[in-house]
Task: structure prediction
Amino acid sequence: VPKNRQRLGYRRIVQLLVFLVVIPTVLLLLVGIVAMFVGRGSVFNLLFGVLTVSFVLVAVTGVVLVLVFLRREANLSTLQADFVSKVSHELRTPLTSIRLFVETMDRARDDAATRDKCIDALGRETERLSLLIERLLDWGRMESGRKQFELRERHVSEIVAKAIEAFGPVRDRHPELDFAADVEPNLPPVNADLGAMVDAVLNLLSNALKYGGTPPVVRVKARRIEDKVAIEVIDNGEGIPRVEHRKIFYKFYRIDDRLSRKREGSGLGLAIVKHIARVHRGVVRLESAPGKGSTFRILIPTVRVASPVVATQEGAKSA
Amino acid sequence: MTVAGANGVPKHRVLVVEDDESIALGLRINLEADGYEVLSAEDGEAGLAMARTERPDVVILDVMLPKLNGFQVLQTVRREGLTMPIIVLSARTGEADKVTGLELGAEDYVAKPFSLAELLARIRAA
Result:
């Protein structure tokens, strides 16, 4: 329902634009052309005509820009509405389990085995809930620019090793996962915020596992590409169609259809990765096609001079 | 609904279609403790197949499911003329979703997080 209302608002604005701007500009354009050719030889008429036509061009550019921005805004608010419903679902699921297991424990007072199962489940679900909340808060801090990144000279091997270490507990839970790392020796150092970079790589790793094939095969590689270092996370999943390549980095965007929840998640993971890469003056690239798995590549520039820099949000945006 | 088993009276069978492992486990523990036989399916397709072949007495159906969503399962089950009571159990709590669920032929619509006692009472009443 809210989606339709939004669409309606968007269409209304387009209609207004057409009636209030486009029609008068077209008339003005005609007047301009007539003025240019009718008063043959008159410098004044020619000048008037040229001015009118250029005014029309400016107006047209303005209208096109307004439409582009409106369209973006409309898409973003749709995504945001979906995000709210997604997140409330993701928060409710562990909460449902917690309530369920508390009530189960209450009913099974004399059954030690069931109680143990409940305690396990409660631990797992509270962990899941706190992870999700952590992710949301993290995003909130980035979005509002309150998150500070401390860029220092770091070794890529250190970043990858830390990310693999943090990925450890997840690997333990998925014994079927085929995982290997391949870090080129003697990589030049990069200016990086260790925590943030590790988080970005970890995000890609958990995505690779989540969207990987059966059994999942995940590789993490670090290598030098010209004056940049690439950290790549490769999976054997079903691959991502070309049309989705840009969209998946939009915040709140998820490939899954709204009702068929394939995998849990907030829709923020890749947006966070992209943001972190940008703070490091780098980019995230995706290589993927249906049936061919996906490669996510974080490219960040290497450093020669060592100078600790504190980059704020503003620094990242102007970069 | 009477529940028995040991004395030869057939137990009531409940099919739980839920993709979240923990919730499925919690439901199974409690339903089994109450003497039901529990069948479970993790996605819509498997749920639909089990509803067809196993003919459970009651179905507990999540909405956000992989492959086929709960509403699609509900619609198909009813179109095929299966009449067992279906209780939709969903984190989608909007009025529109509740109306959709009930109009598609659900017996009941329980919002997550739900109260266990309430859900069990609804299953008994179904």
